[in-house]
Amino acid sequence: MKIQPMIDGLKELGFTEYEARIYLALLRSHPSNGNTIATVSGVPTPKVYETVRKMQEREVVFAVAGGDKGTQIRYSPLPYDELLARSKKAFLGNVNFLQEALTDIAEMSDTNWTELFVIHGYAAGMEAIRSALAEAKSEIFMSLWSQELDALQEVLMEAHQRGVSIVTLIFDKIVQVPWRSFTHHHSDLIGLRHAGELNLVLDKEKTIIFQAMDERPHAVVSRHPVTIKTTLNYIRHDIYVNRIVEEFGEVMEQRYGAGLDGLINDF
């Protein structure tokens, strides 16, 4: 049996190298005097007594008097099962303490801080969106292009089938889907402004804003209430405006011109 792994294990319990070697030597042969311990453990004799004294203070080694007059001092180890039970109790006690203490500290943190991070790359961004949609519990609001809709069709359909409410706004064309979907009014300028854009709000708990057409596609993911509310309102108001354009298009073109250029180019 290899000794080093056992030495390393004892060191994880707080033993030094010499203490571990002496403890294993005593387990093998006890009670033993200093010379025998040195021979079996490989610890230099001058270091044996100094180390044993420290181990006695920790009650992992005990002195045993022997001989005719009781003057021969030998040493025995704390039984290994007691050592392990003591170590386990101390470890679990520390875990329980840290559980309470760290919880208290965490509750003292700034509760207004929430995650916000950036995912780089088209494939990585789409995978993050796909994973988020798969975890949706109650509602999904999205504005996106048909290319990304096609790529996300399967996971959206699965969400719809498990009862998640879905509302989408498609920037470039009318699509046939079983959930509520709206089509954005199209013009060249609007196409440029929304190029590569995807906005997503999940369960009013998470938002992902994805820019796919940039030279470096990236997605911003956040759980901050401000980004969630702002993105949700952005999608909703975009739908409101486009429904008005669809229903009152002729009137609006009379006021703002063909393609609503007078309105769109205002600022």
TrEMBL record:
InterPro entries cross-referenced by the UniProt entry: TrmB-like, Tscrpt_reg_TrmB_C, Tscrpt_reg_TrmB_N, WH-like_DNA-bd_sf, WH_DNA-bd_sf
CDD domains membership: PLDc_like_TrmB_middle
Transcription regulator TrmB N-terminal domain sequence ranges: 10-80
Source species taxonomy: Bacteria, Bacillati, Bacillota, Bacilli, Bacillales
Protein name: TrmB family transcriptional regulator
A family per Pfam: Regulator_TrmB
Start and end residues of each Transcription regulator TrmB C-terminal domain: 116-212
Organism: Brevibacillus nitrificans
